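Quick illustration, no need to memorize.
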Amino acid sequence: MSKLIMWNLISLDGFFEGEKSWALDWHQYAWGDELERLSIEQLKAADGLLFGRVTYEGMAAYWQKETGEVAEFMNRLPKAVVSRTLERADWNNTTLIKGDLGGEVAKLKGKSGKDIYVFGSGKLSHTLMEHGLFDEYRIAVVPVILGSGKTLFGDGLKRQPLKLVETRTFSSGAVMMRYEPRV
């Protein structure tokens, strides 16, 4: 059974995106060889990627033009996009999910033993959290205070106790934390 893993970068003050959609220039404060190696390590362990519509459109526009090892993984891996409004998904190896999210995620998780990652996708992540579908959270805190933007988790979630399973510190000052739900 695959694990569904959230992977996101957040600012010290809790934002995963600046005030505007795709305002991610602050990721530069964390990016470097170490985070690139972690990204490749995670992509090698992945069997798929799951996105909300907005993140899917941004990722597709970006990665289809890029080259290099990360780009190769991003373009090759199976992807699924959850959307009520998207009519088709043109990025290589992408399936469109319009129906029962819980059932579709269960099908994805049952396909193999490799991980499925959710990047960005704040609204989708909120829904997945409401339904208890994440098996793990990987959050990297970037050493920057944005002052405003979009919070990763939004409002209205019920309390969900977690247990810390790993921390990793990068020379950039970013700290990645891995959490699993407490059972």
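The mean pLDDT is 93.
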